[in-house]
């Protein structure tokens, strides 16, 4: 799979499959593109594109401290480098912050927003604890954090090993910065500016982000919401069939 050059002679590594409507997948801190392992199946219907953000996986290191706005700008440059006019953005967890940021700063680049486990700000004690625990483990025992994330995302040992190996490539400083900025980021006031078709997917009681859906319901009355009961936060891997079906139906229904 190719490397593509964006600003500052920086290279991003990405995988691409299929043809048609482009969907770009934005991963959470540390995990890299491999967390979307099962979304490759969407290539049956779409052109699916999986970049590693800088400082992650096989991409170059970031050329300045990582932040939500930094990565949002990076994805816009990535879209331009691929000569794509508009793309569906799929943001998972904190990757959804990046997707949302692009949605209200560069809406001309976004045809649809698809968000799994989305939040406009870390809004509760559980979310704050998850972010702070992640940063603390990065400082003291990154190997344990990698193991926890791999185990929490799948029971498939082969995929666990794939996720583990990919996370080990991440630059710990950029990973930490991504967590840190996700913790302090807040776009609640900007939500009414998101006018493109929007799909939100959440888990049930074990998904700490579900309570954030109220912000979106209030500000984005046109958005569609799905909650997968008895599931946790890790829908792209643990509920990939339903996740992929929802994405397919939503994008095709709202494609003009």
From TrEMBL:
The keyword Transferase does not apply. GO terms for cellular component: membrane. Its EC number is 3.-.-.-. Keywords: Hydrolase. InterPro entries: AB_hydrolase_1, AB_hydrolase_fold, AB_hydrolase_sf. GO terms for molecular function: hydrolase activity. Residues 22-126 form the AB hydrolase-1 domain. This is Protein YvaM. It comes from Bacillus spizizenii (strain DSM 15029 / JCM 12233 / NBRC 101239 / NRRL B-23049 / TU-B-10) (Bacillus subtilis subsp. spizizenii).
């Amino acid at each position: 799979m190719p490397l593509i050059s964006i600003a500052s002679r920086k290279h991003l590594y990405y995988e691409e499959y299929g043809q048609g409507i482009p969907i770009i997948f934005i991963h959470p801190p540390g995990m890299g593109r491999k967390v979307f392992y099962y979304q490759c199946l969407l290539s049956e219907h779409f052109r699916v594109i999986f970049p590693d953000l800088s400082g992650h996986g096989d991409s170059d290191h970031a050329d300045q401290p990582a932040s939500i706005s930094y990565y949002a700008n990076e994805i816009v440059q990535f879209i331009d480098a691929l000569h794509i006019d508009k793309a569906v953005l799929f943001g998972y967890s904190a990757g959804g912050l990046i997707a949302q940021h692009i949605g209200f700063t560069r809406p001309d680049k976004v045809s649809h927003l698809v968000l799994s486990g989305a939040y406009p700000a870390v809004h509760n004690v559980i979310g704050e604890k998850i972010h702070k625990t992640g940063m603390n483990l990065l400082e003291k025992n990154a190997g344990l954090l990698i193991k926890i994330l791999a185990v929490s995302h799948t029971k498939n040992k082969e995929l666990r090993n794939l996720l583990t190996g990919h996370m080990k490539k991440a630059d710990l400083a950029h990973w930490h910065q991504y967590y840190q900025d996700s913790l302090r980021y807040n776009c609640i006031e900007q939500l009414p500016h998101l006018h493109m078709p929007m799909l939100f997917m959440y888990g049930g009681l074990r998904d700490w982000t579900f309570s954030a859906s109220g912000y979106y319901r209030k500000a984005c009355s046109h958005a569609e919401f799905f909650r997968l009961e008895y599931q946790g936060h890790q829908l792209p891997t643990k509920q990939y069939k339903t996740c992929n079906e929802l994405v397919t139906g939503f994008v095709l229904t709202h494609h003009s």
